[in-house]
Design a protein that fits this description.
- The chain has 131 residues and is mainly α.
- The protein has 4 helices and 2 strands, in the order H-E-E-H-H-H.
- It has a two-stranded antiparallel ribbon.
- The protein is globular and about 50 Å long.
């Protein structure tokens, strides 16, 4: 079983890479006509270039590894929050894969939504319930 310190260190590493990926390498565009359906409109991710797709693929792979290690930790410690953890991971993956719609044009706000998911996952790891 991976230690909480190991998981925290790797979550911090993933967070920095996500910040760079979203705030520097990603962009979004307004979805025409969306303000007629949603106040403020909706936004979609702009297609990534080939080089940035490689960064995305590596980030996805690394996040899958650390999130599986964190899930294993939660299972081994008897956590009752696996469903919450899994949903959070799924939400975070949609940001990495850039498959979701966004409700803000501010990339820092988009990153802050990602950070909330990371913080939730870290919180679940930091408060395990031992059998």
């Amino acid at each position: 079983m991976k230690s909480m310190d190991y998981l925290e260190e790797h979550y911090n590493w993933i967070e920095e890479r996500l910040r760079e990926f979203i705030c520097i390498h990603s962009d979004i565009e307004y979805i025409q006509g969306s303000s007629e359906c949603v106040e403020g409109g909706a936004f979609a991710w702009v297609k990534l270039s080939g080089d940035i797709k490689c960064i995305q693929a590596k980030l996805y792979s690394d996040y899958m590894i650390i999130s599986q290690e964190a899930r294993d930790f939660l299972m081994e410690t008897g956590s009752s929050n696996l469903e919450v953890f899994d949903r959070s991971c799924s939400d975070l993956l949609s940001y990495i894969q850039q498959e979701n719609l966004l409700w803000s044009s501010d990339m820092l706000e988009v990153f802050n939504s990602v950070k909330k998911e990371l913080d939730l996952q870290r919180g679940l790891i930091a408060q395990p319930i031992y059998i």
